[in-house]
Amino acid sequence: MTKDMTEGSPLRLIVSFAVPMFLGMLFQQFYSMVDTMIVGKFLGMHQLAGVGSTGSLNFLVIGFCTGVCNGVAIPVSQTFGAKREDELRRYVANSVWLCAGFAVVLTLTVSVLCRPILRLMGTPEDIFTYAYVYILIIFLGIPFTFLYNLLAAICRSLGDSRTPVLFLALSSVLNIALDIAFIVCCHMSVEGPALATVISQAVSGLICLRYVRRKFTVLHMERTEWRVRGSYIKKLCYMGIPMGLQYSVTAIGSIVIQAAINGFGSLTVAGVTAANRIHSLMACPLEALGATMAPYSGQNMGAGRLERVGKGLRSAALLGFGISVVVFVISVVCGRKLALLFLDASNAQAISYTYKFLLTVTAFYCLLTLVNTVRFTIQGMGFSMFAVTSGALEMAARTLAAFVLVPLLGFTGVCLASPLAWLFADCFLIPAFFHCRGKVQSLYR
Questions:
Q1: Closest CA to 221 of 84, 79, 93, 82
Q2: What is the DSSP string of 89-133?
Q3: Rounded CA gap, 254 and 122, in Å?
Q4: Tens digits of per-residue pLDDT, 313-363?
Q5: Contact at 8 Å (CB) between 97 and 228?
Q6: What are 38-48's pLDDT values in tens digits?
Q7: pTM for this structure?
Q8: CB half-sphere exposure, 400, CA atoms < 13 A
Q9: 406 exposed, middle or buried (CB, 10 Å; 0-12, 13-18, 19+)?
Q10: Are 31 and 167 in contact (CB under 8 A)?
Q11: What is the 3-state composition of the chain as percent helix, strand, coil, each rounded to the nearest 5?
C-alpha cells in the first residue's frame, strides 16, 4: 500500500504518482463545476454570482485547512523515507490531535466572521444573501475538510496517491446526486449545493478513515504512541502552519481582487466565476505535479538522496511547460464553448468576460508551473517558512493589481492579477530553491 520514491527514474515515479492525483483533482473540480453548472442553469445568474463571490473567502479558510494537512504530512514522508516507523506513527498521532484542535477553533471563528467579511469585500446586495448562506454551510463542514485532507495527505506521504482518488470519485458521484436531489427535487436554493459538498466530503473522509485503519499496517499504533508530545507538535506546527498560511495569505490577495471584481457588478462576477471554474479544471495537471513534489522530495530528503530532488524538480518543470502550451491552445479554440457550460448563450457580455479572463490566465501557465513545482519541492525539503514568503508576494501582486492595474486598465487589470502574482512568487522561489539546496548540501558534507 506504500511506494518508496527514493529509487528508480524520477520522471517515471513523478508521472506515476501525479496521474492518480490529477484524476483526483479532476473529480474534485468536476463536482465543483457541477455545483456551478446546476446553480447557473437551474437557479439563475444571481445565485451563480453569489456562490462565485465566495470563492476567494472559501480559499482563504479551506486553503488553510488543506495547507496545514499537507504540511504536517511532510515529517511523515521524511520518516518513511528514513525507515523510522516508530517515529512515523508518533507524527501521525500528533498530527491527528493538532488538526482536531484547528478544526474546532476554525469552525467557530469563521462561522461568526463570514458575514462581516463579505460586507468588507463589498459583495453586491442583490447576491449577498446567497453568498452568506452558501459559505456559512461550507464553513460548518470544516471538521470533515480536515478529516479527508489529513488522511489523503498521509496516504500520499507514504507513496499512495491512488487511494484518495477512489474516495474522491465516490464523493463526486454522491455530490452530483445530492445536487440534483436538493435543487431539482427539493427546490432548495444555494444551500443545496453547499449541503451536498459537506455531506459528500464527510462520507468520503469516514470511508477513507476506515480504509487507512485496515490497510496501512505501518500505522497500527500502540496506546503509548497516541500520547501528545510537545516536540512533535512543535515540529508539526513549524511545517503545517506556514503551509496553511501560504494558502491563506495568497487568498487575501484574491479577496482584494474579488472586491475589485464586485465593483464591476454581478454580470462581471458571473463571468469571472465561470472563468475561474474552467481555470481550476485546466490547472489540475500543474497542481498535481506540484503536489507530487512534496512527498517525492520529502522521502528523498529523509533518505539523504538530495541529488534526486533536483532531478525530479527539473523533470516536473519541463513536463509542466509542455502541458501549459497544450492548455493554452485548448483555451483559444474552446474557451467560449466552455463558458456555455455555466452561462446561458444570451449572456453574451458575461461570456466575453469569461473568454478574455481565461485566455489571459492560461497564456502564463508556465509561470504557474514553476510556482507549483518549486514551492512544493522546497516544502518537502523541510523549509516551510519560504511558503509564507511566496504567498505574501502573491498577495502583494494581487493587491497591486487591484489598486493600480484595475483603475488603469479596467477588466484587463483583473485578468493580469494572477499572472503577476505567479511572476512575483517565481522571482523569489527559484533563488530560494538554490539557497535551500546549498544549505542542505552543507549538512551532508
A1: 93
A2: HHHHHHHHHHHHHHHHHHHHHHHHHHHHHHHHTT--HHHHHHHHH
A3: 14
A4: 999 999 999 999 999 999 999 988 888 877 777 778 888 989 999 999 999
A5: yes
A6: 777 777 767 77
A7: 0.73
A8: 14
A9: buried
A10: no
A11: 85, 0, 15
